[in-house]
Amino acid sequence: MSERLWVWGLPLAPLSLAQAVEATVRLVRAGQPCYFITANTHYAMLTHQVPGLHAVNARAAFLLADGAPLVWASRWRRGTSLPERVAGSDLIYQVCERAAAEGLRIFLLGGEPGVADEAGKRLSTLYPGIRIVGTAAPAVGGLTPAEQEELFATVRTAQPDILFVAFGQPKGELWIAEHCESLGVPVSVQVGAAIDFVAGRVRRAPRGLRRVGMEWAHRMWLEPRRLAPRYARNALFMARMLAREFIGANRPGGQSAAQLAEVEP
Questions:
Q1: Range(s) of the domain holding residue 83
Q2: Whole-number Å distance between alpha carbons of 42 and 236
Q3: Does residue 181 sit within a domain?
Q4: Among 212, 213, 194, which Cα is nearest to 204's?
Q5: Residue at 252 is within a domain
Q6: What single-letter DSSP state applies at residue 142?
Q7: CA-CA distance, 117 to 136, in Å (whole number)?
Q8: How, if at all, do strands 131-136 and 10-12 pair?
Q9: Peptide bond into 170 cis (omega under 30)
Q10: Which CATH number characterizes residue 115's domain?
Q11: Spatial distance between the Cα atoms of 20 and 213, rounded to a whole number of angstroms
Q12: DSSP 79
């Protein structure tokens, strides 16, 4: 993917959900180990804070806008805008439906013990014939070198075409970027809570809330203690980005919003 739209420090691909599925299948067919990223507002904030994430983003096949504020911010500018939010929790279903139709092999990695197994069973019910070739729920931060090599061997032996990872942000993105070549999987992607959604462990927001970009409010209502501080930090980050773009766009001879977005903090 050569086209990129910079929003708040992220080089996002202007793809719809359907186009993202097609791009995923093309990467599988190419057969070279790679990864892409579903980036929400929290990930944009982390990119400004965590050393190494800019390099991870640069190496990715593409980044998808998994956050309504990113889409809205792109539309406030002139020129190309992002067509829609592409949520990992929607993408996993669409990719698995396509995988079932084309015989692609899926591995689910991460989440709490048993969650990936439940998700695999639900996907098998939804898409008869889908090839779920493996699941695992390792404690990634605490693996010894021998345990990590055992995990790699498990994934390699299963020979998946697509590896869905749920290690949380930014652990998942950093882990995939470091190990995708060793794993040898054509396509890896961190999908976070999507595996919990598929397994039925967490309820998604009603479609109406998702459509207007308010899924975050539903999730905070379900997990206020964990998510309220995170969303407060995200709100402060968004305010800072909007202020920076507004000042840059209105300063005589100043940088454009797009130019500001490409500058590392």
A1: 5-216
A2: 11
A3: yes
A4: 194
A5: no
A6: G
A7: 8
A8: unpaired
A9: yes
A10: 3.40.50.2300
A11: 19
A12: S
How many CB atoms neighbour CB 30 within 10 A?
A: 12
* Structure token pair of residue 216: 């975050």
Strand 34-39 and strand 187-190: the pairing is: parallel
Q: Which residues contact 46 (CB under 8 A, 6 or more apart)?
A: 53, 169, 170
Phi, psi of 133 (to 5 degrees): -95, -5
Q: Decide if 73 is inside a domain.
A: yes
| DSSP 8-class letter at 61 | S
Indicate the pTM of the whole model. Answer: 0.85
Alpha carbon distance 165, 171 (integer Å) = 10
Overall number of domains in the chain: 1
- The backbone torsions φ and ψ at residue 13, rounded to the nearest 5 degrees and listed phi first, read -85, 130
Amino acid letter, residue 239: A
The token pair at 201 is 């462990």
- Whether the CB-CB separation of 88 and 191 falls below 8 Å is answered with yes
Residue 177: inside a domain, yes or no?
Answer: yes
Band (pLDDT 50/70/90 cuts) for residue 257 is: very low
* Residue with token string 């390699």: 156
Tens of pLDDT along 53-108?
Answer: 999 999 999 999 998 889 988 987 766 789 999 999 999 999 999 999 999 999 99
